[in-house]
Amino acid sequence: MAKDWVALAKEVNSNGMALYKKAPGTMGAFSKLAAAATADGALDKKTKELMAVAIAIVDGCEGCIAYHTQAAIKAGATEAEFLETIGVAIEMGGGPATVYGGQALEAYAALSAG
After folding, report:
1. Which residue stretches of the chain have pLDDT < 70?
2. Of 59, 95, 102, 104, which has fewest CB within 10 angstroms of its CB?
């Protein structure tokens, strides 16, 4: 059964905001870390978001797949770039990464449609 990736991405964002309100120190620091880590530098934001997608696939984190897929799309990632990212994740993560890689591809299709 297909997941509702749009709803999952919204849930991840909503839950993050709720956590931020209850733990502003920790979440504020994490937010600054995430912004610094994904800012353009020697690697651009799109590349960094695709790296995050690959890590999310290998770790099997569906919420992370939704969040970073959405961010990669916003940064301009194409389906071809996304498919290569999934390929690297499968190389590094083996069989389980094929399951989450398929889910990531489904997430890309759902989140890039809107």
Report:
1. 1
2. 95
